[in-house]
Here is the input.
Amino acid sequence: MLEKTYEPKKIEEEIYASWEEKGAFKPDMRKDKDAFAIVIPPPNVTGVLHMGHALDDTLQDILIRYNRMQGKNVLWQPGTDHAGIATQMVVERNLASQGITRHDLGREKFIETVWQWKEKSGGTICKQLRRLGASCDWSRARFTMDDGLSRAVRKIFVKMYKDGLIYKAKKLVNWDSKFMTAVSDLEVIQKETVGKMYYYKYPIKGEEGEFIHIATTRPETMFGDTAVAVSKDNEKLKHLIGKECIIPIINKAIPIIADEHADPTKGTGAVKITPAHDFNDFEVGKRHNLPLINILNPDATLNENTPFAGMDTQTARKKTIETLDSLGLMDKIEDHPMVIPYGDRSGVVIEPLMTDQWFVDAPKLAVEAVKAVENGDMEFVPKSYEKTYFEWMRNIQPWCISRQLWWGHQMPIWYGPDETIFCEEDEETAQSAADKHYGKHVELRRESDVLDTWFSSGLWAFSTLGWPDKSEYLDTFYPTSVLVTGFDIIFFWVARMMMMSMYAMKRVPFRKCYIHGLVRDEQGRKMSKSKGNTVDPMEIIEKYGADALRFFMAAMETQGRDINISESRIQGYRNFATKLWNSARFGEMNGCFLSKVFNPNSVKHPVNKWIIAKVRQTANELTQNLNNFRFSDSANGVYQFVWGTFCDWYIEMIKPIFYGSDDALKNETKATFAFILERILLILHPFMPFVTAQLWNNTHDDNSDIITAAWPKIEDVNNTDIKRIDWVIDFVTAIRSLKSEMNIPAGAKLSALLLGANDESLTNINDFREILCSLARLEKIEEYNHTPTPDMVQTVSREMTILIPLKGVVDFKAEKERLQKELDGLIKNLEGYAKKLSNPAFVDKAPAAVVTEERRRQAEALENKAKVELALKRVSNL
RNA sequence: GGGAGUUUAGCUCAGCUGGAAGAGCAUCUCGUUUACACCGAGAGGGUCGGGAGUUCGAACCUCUCAACUCCCACCA
Here is the structure.
């Protein structure tokens, strides 16, 4: 017996465990089936589940479960990411609380500590994904630093190096002074701030009292200046070109050069050029062969090339200004809105710094990655994201992949005594290559840098399937079917996967890429720990069940939009699960068991025919919607059917059958009910796996599992069956509405007279009139005039007029107002129809069906108008 | 500066190819022996951001104005 209320907590974990135990999430690897695969966007190994994961992984699980039920050979490949900087940061923070730095431990010991941390906290997010119901094949879980995946990384790296696609270069890079590592452009976020613009002057060499005026936001970098640039078109300043000016404080002469970078309309028209600390200046420096002077230490303090060595930039800035002021060289200081780069993880100001780094030739790799989207091998859903992708890919810069961190894939690079580079997959190979090169045994030094964490995630689609080894999984599931992820990592991940996969596999990593938005708080603000507005998915699951959270995510997911979390709505979907649960209880209490001999095409009763047609219609639409990634339409369609059609109408309509005495009909209805409920469980399962599984088990004693039960095929829908009962619903609604508006007690047993009813309609209504709208008696009449009493109310449903005698029950003043309102509405509609239909252009040009429909509506409204007018006249005479 | 998006009921949002404006929540009225109060029945509430255009017909297409959001680049 089912409990009265569905308690998700009691069953979810148990059901999940039983699935995992029997290996229900593993692909069956049958060759005769279509393959369907998704690789999970690997969460940080030490992370915890947030709402973004809940959305992302719910959508994936819906697709996975749906396709599994479609009878495909399905793999959802799970795993986690080592998340270089993020994880190192967490571990360093833990160490700091004990007063230890990573340098105290040394590299080896530190890495060991990170692995320990990973072992300790690494399982959390996978456990949480299980609570969500994610049907990943956990037996295949991978980690980006696994042996196999590490081998993939080294193999690709070496191949790319040897193909000239990875190179070392001394370049200006984004330098994070907290982690003391280079970071890629993507890891830098620009923040609007109101800073200061400092105006001061450099004396012109050899010309007493002559100055060139400079504007800068970073005066402390003046010690790295190697020129001042002026536009050759700058009438006021061009006479200075070719002269030299003196950097004050250090009294160093630098040239004044002509360069188009100096815009006469900006600042003072003269720009100080600091090639080693500014990306634009770097380019200017290259054009003019200017020396590069690095003035910063790796921790962003000034170095010995400045008079303020050891100071941080802020202090040095203050000191510089004070000194310039004391020399009488300051002009002014103004507030200046500007954009300052910060590290996305560290939160410190990013400094452009000259360092030796390793780069991937992204512009070259992008070519094939762009082509694959252009020719449709990979499609974005929604399609508009391909524009974003193209835009970025076509303007892509070399990708800085070296990180001066310890946690990550150490680069497979070895240096010989004379710094000759040996790039091989392992030390042994590198050693023998080196020995051969030098003609003797030499000591090699391994590159200490590790790779950007996205390098290994870029290989995820094939490395997890076994590459570089031969693998049945790789053959079967690559390219994967679809990637589901947020728009925020299109560049970080999707783009890199495309480039890496096109390079390594010559094929796309996935056929489609479904992009969803962010999960925001109730007011639409971004969730963040600092704002304190985060909602923990695990708490929601505890409170309302995983099914409710999942259904919420699906129902809210419309393409291209963010989702605002709404607890009341999640609660509503919990209620939905309970509603379904109780409908099953109703079936159970009335002995509705699945019948093996039941044939939905041979049921006789109109209501049973109707619900069968309706469930087919619902399933058909759902299949379409899921095929098109229309998640909200999918979820809402099922919701509407289960609650609005099955519970609100079908169950109410079959009650009189169950309470009646026609056993044949009873049996047919019981079997139909069981059939419909089973259909509901099937089509709802991808969204609400737990409650549907529980109810499935409750109604099946054959050891079958809903997870592999067959998804309903597309079937023809009998529209006549649908219309017949929809008609009854309209009738019932009209009566109910009338009674409610007239303040007639719901229990009042009324009788009604029907004008214009055909026999079939009458029969259909008679079956339900009592239970659905408390009509005790129905009488068919042919002529309006036959009605003997004038004190009755009237309503219209389709072609019928319904008259209900209400002597002494009804306030006829109210009735008159009601009728007048109805009449006004009809007149307004009629004006619209007349206007349209009298327009020859409409009649000529609109499709025939539209015109016919419009005529039908007009005729109907005209009839109704006559009826209402009559009623009104009658009431007025009272 | 370049690109994308949003503006529809009190709130949060659907509305796929142009063919009588929808949902959930909230509000109001009525209802509890008989699956479910995590319930049922009914109701109110919208010149679909403003303006112009295309069309027989526009929430939907075009132009324009306004407000907001995001991404990329850059600002001495």
In short: Chain A has a mean pLDDT of 89. The first strand of chain A starts at residue 35 and ends at 39. Residues 295 and 304 of chain A are 7 Å apart (CA to CA).
